[in-house]
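Ticket #4471: structure output looks truncated?

Reporter: J.K.
Steps to reproduce: submitted the chain below (217 residues) through the standard prediction queue, then opened the result file.
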Amino acid sequence: MNPGYRDILTELEKDAFKEIINIAFGKAAASLADIIGLYVILSVPKVEVLQPDEIQHFIERELNETKGLNIIEQYYMGKIRGAAFLVLSYENSKQLLSLLEKDESKDSFNFFSIAMLEQETVTEIGNIIIGACVSKMAELLKDFVTYTPPRFIGGKFSGRDLPPKLFDKETYAIVLKTIFQFENKNISGFLFLVNSVESLDWLKKAIHDYMQHYGYE
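Returned output as attached by the reporter:
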């Protein structure tokens, strides 16, 4: 592959894309607060252009988690296409479940029902955050996306477990990563968006349209 692939997005384009994602994350935070009464703080996203093997290493390095992870995987399809991965550690998943519990006594649940409730809770939260963020991103880029149902991935996870169809050896992807944290709670996780190379030409044009509209120089 041409070693210049990292320059596919200029620094100005990356800055504009980060601004778009920041606005989208604000929408995601508001949506989550409306639904479950918790406000989410999302960090300024990191934007990288990576090859397949680099994507795997990048995610593993950024997670740096050895105690086990719960992942919500969801694909989005429009003019921009890709996959979203929301990541929570086992411990943060359990804390999130505890935080959202109503008045039901834990004694009324057995181990398997607690595990299922935890999975359902993480999947629902992931679906809300991913859907709100990606939809707003698409809206700002004058696009509309549809989604596959969210899929829960439990157990030990590594970059090698990511879907092979994302990793054609002759291609690359625009990868975004942010850290999200529930306000005033010791619960945090990661959100990755892996945008496929098929979206690149359209995405660059959409970013430039956004830059022109808002007076970037």
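Triage note (M.O.): checked the attachment and the full token line is present. DSSP finds five helices and eight strands in the chain.
Status: closed, working as intended.
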